[in-house]
Amino acid sequence: MIYSKMGTSSSPSILGRLANSEWLVAYLFILPSLIGFVLFYAYPSVRSVFISFTEWNLLSDAEYVGWANYQEIFSDERFWRALQTTVVYVLWNIPLQTILALFMAVVLERFSTVLSTLLRSIMILPWLMPSVIVSLLWLWILDPSLGIANEFLKLFGVPKQYFMGEPQQAIAWIAAINIWRNAGYNAILIFAGLKTIPRSLYEVAEIDGANSWTQFQRITLPLLRPVLTFVLVTTVVGSFQIYDTIAVTTNGGPAGATRVIIFYIIDEVFNRRISMGTATAASVVLFCILVSVTLIQMRFLQANQSDLADYS
Q1: pLDDT higher than 90, residue 231
Q2: Nearest to 308 by CA among 162, 194, 151, 178
Q3: In whole angstroms, what is the distance from residue 211 CA to residue 209 CA?
Q4: Are 220 and 42 in contact (CB under 8 A)?
Q5: What single-letter DSSP state applies at residue 165?
Q6: What is the DSSP letter of 164?
């Protein structure tokens, strides 16, 4: 009895010390990343909010101007035109890229393991290439005079195309380049999600007489919702921040047809005038847009819920 009491009273303290030591080790491993996050992400983000309420040209002390910077960008036609161009790019990029990635993932799952592994290795290659290299590659392919694309179209009697030199086509071709680069990577993410769906659900559906399309609608899509949410959120956020592909291929042209919101922010700092206040105000507005779009996606797709429990 005395032994049991001693054991009962001493064991919690031992377990407590063990747990505390494990937590200490965990925090020590996290600490370098946490310091990097605070110094290079959190602190600059918070400071940019304060800068957005000042007039600062990097050469003199910042002067508080209140909401003047926000009033200026909201009354600037260039800002709204850049935002509209960005939205057009997102509408070109996201639906086509997501549908293509979903299609490739479903097709991949139907192949054998060896063939599927080979195809996944090939599909990931464009994503592994630097975006600057991809942009240069497609800039040469789509060159109106020397590019192979016009030579290929000539075989079918299609007249010469200017591709990214045409204001009506430029933003669509920018989206096409990024779809080519990122669709394979997103397909692999979706493919991984498909592998988590129990095969027994499809077997039961087949016994009940459900065809492939019904199985896709009733089983595949609902159970892929967490993965699709992740893919959509990350691709939308990345699409709103598109810059490198445009900088290499069109540099915002032709006639400003590809001048997206990031170009507006850079112009405010380096090209048009040195105005950190206006540029950071536009950055804060872009941040608020991205947060709002992300929350809407998470709410609409019900990312915090899983349909797998309904089938168990």
Answers
A1: yes
A2: 194
A3: 6
A4: no
A5: G
A6: G
How far is the C-alpha of 280 from the C-alpha of 268, rounded, in Å? 9
CB 264 within 8 A of CB 86: no
Q: Answer for the pair 246, 267: CB distance below 8 angstroms, yes or no.
A: no
Identify the residue with better confidence: 275 or 179. Answer: 179
Identity of residue 231: V
User: Which of 38, 36, 84, 76 shows the shortest CA–CA distance to 281?
Assistant: 76
Instruction: Identify each DSSP E strand in the chain by its residue range.
Output: 54-55, 63-64
CA of 70: how far to CAs of 50, 61, 125, 127, 278, in Å?
Answer: 12, 20, 42, 37, 7
Tokens of 105: 């993932």
Mark residue 112 as left, alpha or beta (left: phi above 0; alpha: psi -120 to 50; beta: remaining): beta
Q: How far is CA 284 from the centre of its chain?
A: 18
Residues in the chain, overall count: 312
Q: Which residue has the tokens 């959190």?
A: 42
Q: Is 35:27 a contact under the CB 8 Å cutoff?
A: no
Q: What is the pLDDT of residue 1?
A: 45
Tokens of 49: 């909010």
Tell me the pTM.
0.86
